[in-house]
């Protein structure tokens, strides 16, 4: 009996844990999913309130007597919801009433009334201490001077099956007939609008070269600090590692002056060469190589293998988790870099733009079409997300192996 109660409590505890974790996972992922769905919407759908998760398109229909297809809306007739087509919008309607009886209201189109006394000499009357104009309103064949109480705009809705049947109601408060529809062509539009294809190519090139460069320098530097003995090795390593503590904002000005002196401003080389050296990557690889058994290296040295061959044939194949971890972090940093490209690449030099700069310009050009902005953001986010997912297992393997060796 106790065993059964224990199993039930354990199942309930695990179920509660999974529910809580699933809830917070959905909360964290919701903005990403909303960005993807909004990038597939029409511009008018992005401004809809309240906002909706999935994109919707208005349904149109062909009505006899009208040249273009008309959008469908739901209208209420005799307590029933029916689908009518919007034939005209922005029809101004006013509510009028006699000055001595404001409760006796009449609704008329503004074009069907005229100022009492004519447009050149309109008559006025005092209502609640305020002087207002009088308008001639036809009521039961007689013209009655009235004051304008309020005005609004309505739309003319017609029955698609019988265009003679018309209904007038507020368009803004009417619910359109819609269905779920996706617009992947938004991605093509944003590429054509801002030239994201060139920016994507530049970003890919810069990211790949930075990743390969950092892996090469980190492996060589990490192996040198871990295995080679030379005077001042520990002091040089501590000094090199201390550069991590220098804020990047302190390096921008001298680094930019160096790029000007070399002549690399407005060139992709300035986004690659300065960033292929990393103290963090060297530290990561040094700590990894230290945990590698020295006996294997000594045996290889006795067999006549050189240091470079030991590194190439023994250490690097055994360091895939550490290399994948550093490659993933470097990829994310290089792909999302914004401040340095903004400083060293001219905004007008679009042929050397990376994605972050292109998206910054797109934010201004497509400010009235947030669906295109989010489509550009999706283009920039999805590749590093895929890389992170693919490299996730290497993180776990690297942490697990370091924990065992520690």
Structural write-up:
The model is unreliable at 402-406 (pLDDT under 50). α3 (185-194) crosses α14. Helix content is 52%, strand content 19%. The strands form 2 sheets. Strands 2, 3, 4, 5, 6, 7, 8, 9, 10 and 11 form a 10-stranded antiparallel β-sheet that branches. It has a two-stranded antiparallel sheet with strand order 1-12. The chain has helices spanning 2-38, 43-46, 185-194, 196-227, 233-242, 249-262, 269-272, 279-290, 294-302, 307-315, 320-336, 339-344, 355-365, 370-405; strands at 56-58, 60-61, 70-77, 80-97, 106-109, 114-115, 124-127, 130-139, 142-158, 166-169, 175-176, 178-180. The protein folds into 3 domains: 2-56, no CATH class; 57-180; 187-405, MetI-like (MetI-like fold). The protein is of the alpha+beta class and 406 residues long. The chain contains 14 helices and 12 strands.
Q: Helix and strand layout, with pairings?
A:
Layout: H1 2-38, H2 43-46, E1 56-58, E2 60-61, E3 70-77, E4 80-97, E5 106-109, E6 114-115, E7 124-127, E8 130-139, E9 142-158, E10 166-169, E11 175-176, E12 178-180, H3 185-194, H4 196-227, H5 233-242, H6 249-262, H7 269-272, H8 279-290, H9 294-302, H10 307-315, H11 320-336, H12 339-344, H13 355-365, H14 370-405
Antiparallel strand pairs: 1-12, 2-3, 3-4, 3-11, 4-5, 4-9, 6-8, 7-8, 8-9, 9-10
Helix pairs in contact: 3-14, 4-8, 4-11, 4-13, 11-14, 13-14
